[in-house]
UniProtKB/TrEMBL annotation:
Belongs to the major facilitator superfamily. Sugar transporter (TC 2.A.1.1) family. It comes from Liquidambar formosana (Formosan gum). InterPro entries: MFS_dom, MFS_sugar_transport-like, MFS_trans_sf, STP/PLT_plant, Sugar/inositol_transpt. It is found in: Membrane. It comes from the Eukaryota. Pfam families: Sugar_tr. The chain crosses the membrane at residues 47-66, 72-90, 102-120, 132-155, 270-288, 300-320, 332-354. One of its GO terms (cellular component) is membrane. The keyword Glycoprotein does not apply. This is Major facilitator superfamily (MFS) profile domain-containing protein.
Length: 385
């Protein structure tokens, strides 16, 4: 959408407000995500998300009018809502604690791969005729959705969801396949049974997982001190992840570069692609360090880098806006700080937000807690446009 937005504006003769509505629609939150996931399972929820992606992307790619384009974007947003919430939960529930940081950080890595491929498609398809270029930029997104659906057909269901549905034998078999030993599988099964309220232990907080209002019942009217801390940490982290403006920066990167005076030829798409590559490369570092160094250190480094780079970017853009000769050093500063910003986000705020939310919320409130965090996340993301 970052490269398609400008082309759509010129081709369909729409206003900047309509462009903003089109971009922000992808941040829509599906209030039924938690309920659907608990009813049909993590695996089938992701297959359903793939269907939304497929229909939405095809509709956008074939859209003759703005209303059709916006409808396709809205349908695809349901896929976004399902995916953003379920993938981190699935990764956390199927991963052993010793390697959860490594495995659960990979969704962010592949989000960055997707962003980079999106920038690459912008560079390739922008050479085509106006009416065809932006449609291919959006329509080509239907291809990965097919691979996603087929891939999930071969993956096991979440063992926690199976235990929650009293399908312990199936959960035991899944745990045997993903655990290092029979003893580890048995131990994990006992923990999952206790969290779901099916085990022998009575010291675990147990909350029914069916229905959409159980999380609110836990928080209202008199939440415990520990539940308040969980709420503040999970929801607060999701808020600040998007309040820093990462989605706006990624989607409006071409406009930021245009504001910096970079307009000629392929220079802008190439620089944008480099930004995507930097974002992807730096998202690998948390995967190999989270389980050894810890979540907090990466978060602090990430927030510090984002703060410095945003202040520097604002300084560079202000200097370019107020000087007629547009100094080269200010243009270089904008490009460097843009890359530093996305790199800083990728080492902490990006992957750790999803991982931390799934780890800090009780197992019995996994989906509902992630749903509340995702609601705040998506609303904040939409408001940033």
């Amino acid at each position: 959408m970052s490269g398609a937005a400008t082309l759509i504006k010129h081709d369909l003769k729409i206003t900047p407000w309509q462009v903003a509505a089109l971009v922000a629609t992808a941040s829509g939150f599906n209030p039924f995500t938690s309920y659907v996931s608990n009813q049909i399972g993590r695996r089938h929820t992701m297959i359903l998300a793939s269907a939304f992606f497929l229909v939405g992307q095809l509709l956008m790619g074939l859209a003759p009018y703005y209303s059709t384009l916006l409808s396709g974007r809205l349908i695809a947003s349901f896929g976004v809502s399902f995916t953003f919430m379920i993938v981190p939960i699935y990764a956390a529930e199927i991963s052993p604690a010793s390697s959860r940081g490594f495995l659960a950080s990979f969704p962010e890595f592949f989000i960055n791969v997707g962003v980079t491929l999106g920038y690459a498609s912008n560079m390739v398809f922008s050479k085509l005729p106006l009416h065809l270029g932006w449609r291919l930029m959006l329509g080509v997104g239907a291809i990965p959705s097919v691979f996603l659906a087929v891939g999930f057909l071969f993956l096991p269901e979440s063992p926690y969801w199976l235990v929650m549905k009293n399908r312990d034998d199936e959960a035991r078999q899944v745990l045997r396949n993903i655990s290092a030993s029979e003893a580890e599988a048995a131990s994990r099964l006992v923990d999952l049974q206790a969290a779901a309220g099916n085990g022998p232990r009575n010291d675990v907080v147990q909350v029914p997982t069916s229905g959409c209002c159980n999380l609110l019942k836990e928080f209202i009217p008199r939440p415990t001190r520990s539940v308040c801390h969980i709420f503040i940490a999970a929801v607060g982290l999701n808020f600040f992840q998007q309040a820093t403006g990462i989605d706006a920066v990624v989607l409006y990167a071409p406009r930021i570069l245009k504001k910096a005076g970079i307009k000629k030829g392929l220079r802008k798409p190439i620089i944008t692609l480099v930004v995507g590559v930097v974002k992807t490369v730096f998202s690998v570092f948390p995967a190999f360090g989270l389980d050894r160094i810890g979540r907090r250190s990466f978060l602090l480094a990430s927030i510090g880098g984002m703060f410095v780079s945003l202040v520097s970017l604002g300084l560079g853009l202000t200097m370019l806006d107020r000087t007629a000769d547009r100094p080269v050093w200010a243009q270089v500063l904008c490009m460097i700080t843009l890359a530093v910003y996305v790199a800083s986000y990728s080492i902490g705020m990006g992957p750790i937000t999803w991982l931390y939310t799934t780890e800090i919320v009780l197992y019995s409130l996994h989906v509902q807690g992630a749903g509340m965090g995702m609601l705040v996340n998506r609303v904040t993301s939409g408001s940033s446009y």
